Every structure is written in structure tokens, then in C-alpha cells.
Amino acid sequence: MAPLNPNAQRYSPTMMWGSTPLFQFGDMQEIIQNFVRVHVDAPGMEEGAPVFPLGYQYPSLDQLADMIPCILQYLNFSTIIGVGVGAGAYVLSRYALTHPDTVEGLVLINIDPNAKGWMDWAAHKLTGLTSSISEMILGHLFSQEELSGNSELIQKYRNIIAHAPNLDNIELYWNSYNNRRDLNFERGGDITLKCPVMLVVGDQAPHEDAVVECNSKLDPTQTSFLKMADSGGQPQLTQPGKLTEAFKYFLQGMGYMASSCMTRLSRSRTASLTSAASVDGNRSRSRTLSQSSESGTLPSGPPGHTMEVSC
Fold this sequence. Notes:
Layout: E1 14-17, H1 20-23, H2 29-32, E2 37-39, H3 61-75, E3 80-85, H4 87-98, E4 103-109, H5 118-130, H6 133-141, H7 144-149, H8 152-162, H9 167-178, E5 197-202, H10 208-217, E6 223-228, H11 235-238, H12 240-253, H13 263-267, E7 272-273, E8 277-280, E9 283-286, E10 289-290, E11 308-310
Parallel strand pairs: 1-2, 1-3, 2-11, 3-4, 3-11, 4-5, 5-6
Antiparallel strand pairs: 7-10, 8-9
Helix pairs in contact: 3-4, 6-8
InterPro entries: AB_hydrolase_fold, NDRG
Protein name: Protein NDRG2
Function: Contributes to the regulation of the Wnt signaling pathway. Down-regulates CTNNB1-mediated transcriptional activation of target genes, such as CCND1, and may thereby act as tumor suppressor. May be involved in dendritic cell and neuron differentiation.
């Protein structure tokens, strides 16, 4: 858990689940100096975690989401901005569905809101017969093109996972993720995320179709969709600068960091962030982020109490 910044109390805390490397990026410091930042590890995922005993019943992702209120109560936080990757994105989304008044915004990277179907389940079982747990997790994190290229990043994560002292714990977490329930998002229905959401996925990433489908089920007036070119399966690792700028833009749309300059967005002419634009009553709310267009400062609203949780 990161230390709290006493100078950041005018903004809400940010809760993170699985996105720690992104917040270590240099350009991200402009953001985190304005927020209280809290990193949450799933049980047994923290550095130096002991291996769970044989037969340990690992929590489901729903149960992990149910733990968040205790964390907020302990830290005396009333609202959060959640940042999650993969399973962390799912956990934060599940929490936001049951506690919408405590979530100001969500940044969801590589979210798959769907339960595994029978075909997915069968494929997973067959893969498990021929592949190690570390190789299955790598195939979940990175595209086949990235794995075939065997870059330095792939080699690094292959070594980290294969030699992790808590690999048995990781496998339990992996199994919980694969047994997740469907979030049942429905555009225009009762089951939806009611806060501003930024969906992020890499072009040709393993989770691209799932994130595109998720975008189609959420409120277009509240949702920004960012598909990042040349970023592979983990855009927070391969394109942290572009993702940081998009995060600033997202926060500005929520009324934070109004004075921050979107320098990288105005310089870059290569990538684009696409999303839906729609009309809500007499208001037209565009949720398009484009790195091939001019950038500016979004109108700022009253500052809230936000907590950043990185998952």
C-alpha cells in the first residue's frame, strides 16, 4: 500500500488493482501528486506472500469485491477513482455495481465482463493438459505475435511468473478469474456502471473483442473507449506515456486537473483514442479522445473526494 500524500486531500483517493507499473512512469507523477494513491493486492499476490496451505479455498472475484468496503472504511475514504487491469478491472466493476455512490470514475484495462462459456471452458481445460500454468498466464497477458517475438518484456515476465515463489497462489487467483460470473451489463438497463468509465485495450490484444463488447453494453454518454495501436496485450507497460495522457484527459473530463497541459496528445500524430459521442437531452457530450487532433483543457467541475485504487 502506497503512502498517503498529505498534500493531496483536495482530490479523492485513487484505488489501483494490478496497474502499479503505470503509476511509476515519470509523466504520471503530475497526476499522483494530486491524489491519495492506494494499491490493493489480491490475497497471496503481495511480495513475499507465503504459499497458501493445500486445500485453501481462494476467494471468488465477487468476494474480493466485497472486501473493498472494509478497505475504504479503514482508510476513511468516502469515494474513489478505480484503476484496474484484467481481474482487477472486473473486481472494481463488480464493486461499482453494488456501491455506485462511492465510485467517481473507473479506468478499466483489458476487462472481460463475461463469464467463460462452455467452449472457452473446454479450450482452457485442453490447454491445461499441454501447457504449464506460467505459459497459460502469458497467453492471457500477451498476444501470440508478442509471444512469438519473444521480446525483452516477454522474457522478463516469463521469468517472473515461472520462478515466482508464490506460483501456487497465482494459480489459485487464476482459477478464480476463470470461474468469474457474468457482470450482465446492459445498455439502458438497470445493471450498468453509472460513473464515467475509460475502457482501454491494445490493438490485436487477447482481450480486444471482450473490451469492444463491453463498450457496446455501457452508457455511451459515460464511457470512453481507447484502443491503443502498437501496444500489445499490456498497454500500461508498452505505451505508458500515451495512456498517462489519456488518463489526464479522463480526469479533466471529471473536473480534475483543469490546468494540466495535454502536451503529448497535441504532439503525437500517430495514435487515436476512439469512443462514442452522444446527445443527452440538450447536451452533446463527446467522449472521443484523438491524438491526431488539437487538444485542450476540458471544463472543470467542482472537485470531489476521489480515491484511486489500482487493481
